[in-house]
Amino acid sequence: MSLLVTNIGELVTNDPAAGEGPLGIVRDAAVVVDGDRVAWVGPRAAAPPADARLDADGGGVLPGFVDSHAHLIFAGDRAAEFAARMAGEPYTGGGIRTTVAATRAASDDDLRASARRLVAEALRQGTTTIEIKSGYGLSVPDEARSLRIAAELTDETTFLGAHVVPAEYADHPDDYVDLVTGPMLAAAAGHARWVDVFCERGAFDGDQARAVLTAGAKAGLGVRVHANQLTEGPGVRLAVELGAASADHCTHLSNADVDALAGGDTVATLLPGAEFSTRSPYPDARRLIDAGATVALATDCNPGSSYTSSMPLCIALAVREMRMTPAEALWSATAGGARALRRTDVGVLRPGARADLVVLDAPSYLHLAYRPGVPLISSVLHRGVQP
Ligand code: NIG
Ligand code: FE
């Protein structure tokens, strides 16, 4: 079954060989999808015939968003903690334990239903690839079931047993690191593609983070790191040294951190929803891009520091608050996210890529930042199908 997406005002391909500039823009374009793959991209006048058609009505079309950082397996919410922050309380990450207690007490069905609802919410806003982390179980059975449920929803699953030290290990944290790198990793590895650690004061220090990441890598998992969110620390440099796919947050960076990101192939994944929801200073995307680092944007969707599934919101914040151009922000939310997941089949519209695309109720991607908060996603194709 083939589908012709036609009457596209402005098509973003992210394929510089296919069109204008780094976004590979084609005007007055069409796309042909065959099954779950893109079959053809080009000017509308040259489009081959197809079985069915989707009229973009002059709207912009883009690759589906790639949200490379989300924590969707949890129960409960922390709206009261958010309200307290907006009244002046700082964010410390201490609320993670509240969500751990609620998650442990929830049934499998409740966790599954809540995560499904969030994936569907993200999809309606144009997210066609999403990474999902564990990290609110923090026991062997609870981390294993979090990842089993995550794997029902995405291929991009991440073991975050090292999110914080749970209360029962507060007095002997190194025993918790032994649990994470031993039995917990063994139970998680079959359901996870990636290993992650929250390397931060109050969570895991550089040595503990190194132990978790090297054990994960030895078990065949790719590496990603929560790095330099609340303070400067060893996270970013450790991520680059270990060849991590991504260092996430990157809010507090020394010049050496910026140089390391610019010189390595670790993507700097920026999460503006977290700074928005914790009322913290935003990371400086301009500094990273100007130094030569690759930047991705993601939501960090979680009940504590960033309870949004909206990539359009992240784009708008990145443009307004992080000194990114609209073109850079769009690239980072699509192709950048794909880089952060080491994927070449998503975040791009070219023959052979996955047929994941977004049709806008606006003539150009520029409107995502220009018209913040407005629901501009008029339709989504995910694996060639309109959900
Ligand atoms: O990425 N920083 C660590 N983890 C999450 C926050 C989790 C929470 O507060 O529940 C983050 O922001
Ligand atoms: Fe996170």
From TrEMBL:
GO molecular function: imidazolonepropionase activity; iron ion binding; zinc ion binding
Taxonomy, superkingdom: Bacteria
Catalytic activity as recorded in UniProt: 4-imidazolone-5-propanoate + H2O = N-formimidoyl-L-glutamate
GO BP: L-histidine catabolic process to glutamate and formamide; L-histidine catabolic process to glutamate and formate
Binding-site list for Fe(3+): 69, 71, 226, 300
Annotated compartments: Cytoplasm
Gene Ontology annotations for the cellular component aspect, listed alphabetically: cytoplasm
Binding site for Zn(2+): 69, 71, 226, 300
Amino acids binding N-formimidoyl-L-glutamate: 136, 302, 304
Chain residues that bind 4-imidazolone-5-propanoate: 78, 136, 163, 229, 305
EC number assigned by the record: 3.5.2.7
Matches recorded under Pfam families: Amidohydro_1 (PF01979)
Keyword Acyltransferase in annotation: no
Enzyme kind, highest EC tier: hydrolase
Necessary cofactors: Zn(2+); Fe(3+)
Keywords annotated in UniProt: Cytoplasm, Histidine metabolism, Hydrolase, Iron, Metal-binding, Zinc
Domain Amidohydrolase-related: start-end pairs: 61-362
Family of the protein in this entry: Belongs to the metallo-dependent hydrolases superfamily. HutI family.
Role according to the record: Catalyzes the hydrolytic cleavage of the carbon-nitrogen bond in imidazolone-5-propanoate to yield N-formimidoyl-L-glutamate. It is the third step in the universal histidine degradation pathway.
Protein name: Imidazolonepropionase
